[in-house]
Each structure stands twice: as C-alpha cells, then as structure tokens.
Design goal:
By secondary structure, this protein is mainly alpha-helical. Helix content is 77%, strand content 0%. The longest helix is centred in the first third of the chain and has 23 residues.
C-alpha cells in the first residue's frame, strides 16, 4: 500500500502545474489546496457517523454570507490569532530577526508586559469550550 501511495505521489508531482515552488502563486495555490484538503477531511474525524458528516457537508454547501459573518464574529479571537500567525509566517526573515532582537534588547519591564499581553490574548482564545481529543471518538 505504501508503494502504491509513493508511486502515485511521484506521478502527481510530475504532472502537477504547481510543482515549481519558485513562483509565489504556485506556492499559494499549493498551500491553499493543502489547507482546504486537510480542513475538509477533518470533518470525517469529528463526525460520529456518515449521516452527520453528510449534514456538515450539506451545511457547508448551503452557507450564506450571514452565517459566515456570524461565525467570524463568534470566533473573532480565533480568527485574529490565525491572521496574526499568517502575517508572522509570511514576514521576511530579516523583519523577524529585527523584532526578535528589538525584544531582546528591550527593558525587562517591557518584555514582561509583552509576555503578559500575549499570554492573556492566548488565554482568551483558549478559554472557550475544550474539545475532547479527536481519537477518543474511535
């Protein structure tokens, strides 16, 4: 089975129009497709049976702008954290080194304050209802 998957992956790489990662749009398309594939396959892990998974997929297909806006507002801290993570991830390395070194050179009180603010923000994001470990469903 592993051999078949490896061969299939090799064939896909040879015919993939996004295999040239030197172009920014190919990297973007690859990341976008991978993110969406992983996100939608997790629906099967979180569902207790096939009917619930089907309902989730049909609800996704029937989403309107109002529902999407309600989700954005309801999970604003989570989406803000994701946005900050994406921005930090895509910053050039020189910028990351600059703010890292600026933090290291800052006074101790500033470091403690920044650490407290970040910890408080992350606590706010994580303080919603905890989800059980995904493999407990199996």
């Amino acid at each position: 089975m592993v051999l078949v998957g490896t061969l299939l992956f090799g064939v896909v790489l040879k015919v993939s129009p996004w295999s040239d990662k030197n172009r920014w749009y190919n990297r973007f398309i690859g990341i976008f497709l991978t993110f969406n594939f992983i996100t939608f396959t997790r629906i099967w892990f979180r569902s207790t049976d096939f009917d619930i998974a089907s309902q989730v997929f049909s609800q996704i297909a029937n989403l309107s702008f109002g529902v999407g806006f309600d989700v954005l507002i309801g999970y604003k801290w989570v989406f803000l954290t994701m946005l900050i993570g994406y921005i930090i991830h895509w910053l050039p390395t020189t910028w990351k080194n600059y703010y890292k070194n600026a933090f290291i050179r800052s006074p101790y009180l500033v470091q403690v304050t920044v650490a407290f603010i970040i910890s408080f923000f992350l606590y706010q994001v994580l303080s919603s209802d905890m989800q059980p470990f995904i493999y407990f469903a199996f």
